[in-house]
Amino acid sequence: MIHYHFDWSAVLSGAPLHWIVSGLWVTFNLTIWSGVLATLLALLLLGMRLSAYRGLRWISACYVTLFRNTPLAVQLLFWYFGGLQCLPGSWRDWLNTSHQLGGVHFPSTEVLVGVWALTLFSAAFLSEEMRAGVRAVSNGQFDAAHSQGFSHWQSLRWIVLPQALRYAWQPLIGQYLSLMKNSPLTMSIAVTELLYQTNQIESFNLHAIEAYAVATLLYLLLGLLLSLALQQLGKGMFVSGDLHVK
Amino acid sequence: MIEFKNVDKHFADLHVLQNINLKVAKGEVVVVCGPSGSGKSTLIRTINGLEPINGGEILVDGQAISKRARPAERQKIGFVFQQFNLYPHLSALQNITLAPRRLGGLSEDKANAEGLDLLAQVGLVEKSRHYPAQLSGGQQQRVAIARALAMKPRILLFDEPTSALDPEMIGEVLSVMKSLAHGGITMMVVTHEMGFAREVSDRVLFIDQGRILETATPQAFFKHPVHPRARQFLQQLQSPLHLAEESA
User: Fold this and answer.
1) E strand spans, A40-197
2) Is B23 in contact with B3 (CB distance < 8 Å)?
3) Which of A232, B56, B101, B241 is deepest in the core (most CB within 10 A)?
4) What ipTM score was computed for the predicted complex, to two decimals?
5) Based on the number of CB atoms within 10 Å of its own CB, is A52 exposed (0-12), middle (13-18) or buried (19 or more)?
6) Do B98 and A146 touch (CB under 8 A)?
7) CB distance A144–B81 less than 8 Å?
8) Are B56 and B5 in contact (CB under 8 A)?
């Protein structure tokens, strides 16, 4: 420690700065894309879990059990080294060559697998939080909706889900933050996200303290922004006052 | 209008409705009373399929209600709950317009106009933008009645509509119900409000342990209840303390 020379410019200038920025951009994209896709998948899983068909309920429950009880790190490696092998050879070749889509670089195979794994993993948690929200809505709400002629799905869509999401909103924010904080695990399949790039700086100039401090601050900033944005989104979606009836 | 034919309903081992036979004519107001756990709420919940029946059949306008009433069948039967069950995430007006808009295909403007008319009918136009949590119990129940009317039902079912209310709010709800009854809609009302039964109903139905023990005009029922259980029930309603002391 005595011989350590702090030099922030070793991280915040030149190639290291470029790496940090590009890593942050990848982390940001991993979080947003996985977050949106996981939300859609979670809604599908929730719908299946609340369905009248036992088969669908069973599939959804098994999915959640499998993905919630196994480590994300294992899932990532499984999809990257195992899952990709199951694809037809021509698909793998296509994925492994670089492509342009409307002037934008098509994401690398690593990023795609990263988003895929984070989506499947996070959806299991999100759907369980949503289900807890649905259970918090009283049965009387279903009764009222059914008595007016809403079908099961219409009741969920117009009456129960808006309330359930509101009950579950704070825990859901926690899950989206977890998703962001899980994203560095994709480093294990060589996704060049923020932590991957930070490691690179460390091995490039040995300024570990500055590099990891900057990475920590950036993760913190990203988390704060994400949580703030979701709080605002919640306020926009749930305009009325207290949900609890007197 | 509403006809029960040998209707049976079980909750596991409990036989909640036993061979119910009943006809309610168009425009008739029937009050259902009986001790708690007698099956009176279950009876009216079966009419719009909130409780599926295990035997017999229920006809509404000559059409059998399927075991689990289809959504379209339910639209024409309004239901008012003891706990109001308003949608807490929607304003009073939105509570009323949701079904006409989403199920009836009404435009927002048309649905709002009709919704405000209904709110006027229950005396709450000025509360249209309020959320349920901002309304008193009596006001919530009046909004719930307006909501039950939104799909223009031919039948209104009430499940103890005043039981969850503070005494000073019961009157406002009963008065709305009374004006509806005079408007000619068919009503079945589960209630302990014997004043309402006496004044407004055409017929009183006494039910105990899943059986209809007595049906009579309110005059006859309150003056000369025939069945011993009905007599006991009425005495209990009139002087609960007296009876409790007697049995102690």
Assistant:
1) 100-101, 104-105
2) yes
3) B101
4) 0.90
5) exposed
6) no
7) yes
8) yes
pLDDT at residue B12, as a whole number: 86
User: Do the Cβ atoms of A179 and A230 come closer than 8 Å?
Assistant: no
In this complex, which of A138, A150, A245 lies closest to B132 when CB atoms are compared? Answer: A245
**Residue B122 tokens, joined:** 């229950």
| Phi, psi for A97 (deg, rounded to 5) | -100, 150
The Cα B41–Cα B216 span in angstroms is 19
CB contact under 8 A, A154 and B103: yes
> Is A237 near chain B, with CB under 8 Å?
no
8-state DSSP, A158: I
Cα separation, A144 vs A161, in Å, equals: 14
Residue with tokens 């040998």: B6
Query: What is the least distance, in Å, from the CA of A47 to any CA of chain B?
Result: 19
Q: What is the distance, to the nearest Å, from the Cα of residue A174 to the centroid of all Cα atoms in its chain? A: 11
Q: Which residues of chain A have pLDDT under 50?
A: 241-242, 244-246
Say whether B78 and A162 touch across the interface (CB within 8 A): no
Q: Residue B59 is inside which H or E element, if any?
A: strand B55-60
Q: How far is CA B13 from the centre of its chain?
A: 26
CB-nearest to A149 from B74, B81, B131 is: B74
Q: Are B135 and B149 in contact (CB under 8 A)?
A: no
For residue B85, the one-letter residue type is N
Tokens of B154: 């031919």
- The reported pLDDT for the residue numbered A246 is 34
pLDDT band, residue B244 (cuts 50/70/90): low
Of the candidates B243, B214, B218, the residue with the CA atom closest to the CA atom of residue B38:
B214
B132 touches chain A (CB under 8 A): yes
Query: Does position B69 have pLDDT exceeding 70, yes or no?
Result: no
Q: Read off the pLDDT of each residue in B125-138 and give the average, rounded to a whole number.
A: 95
Q: Determine the distance from the C-alpha atom of residue B188 to the mean position of all C-alpha atoms in its chain, rounded to a whole number.
A: 5
Q: Name the residue among B75, B89, B131 with its Cβ closest to that of A148.
A: B75
Cα of A26 to nearest chain B Cα, Å: 38
CB atoms B89 and A149 under 8 Å: no
Place of tokens 């490691």: A199
By the CB < 8 Å criterion, does B87 face chain A?
Answer: yes
Query: Which of residues 121 through 150 in chain A touch B, CB cutoff 8 A?
Result: 138, 140-141, 143-144, 146-150
Is-contact A127 B71, C-beta < 8 A?
A: no
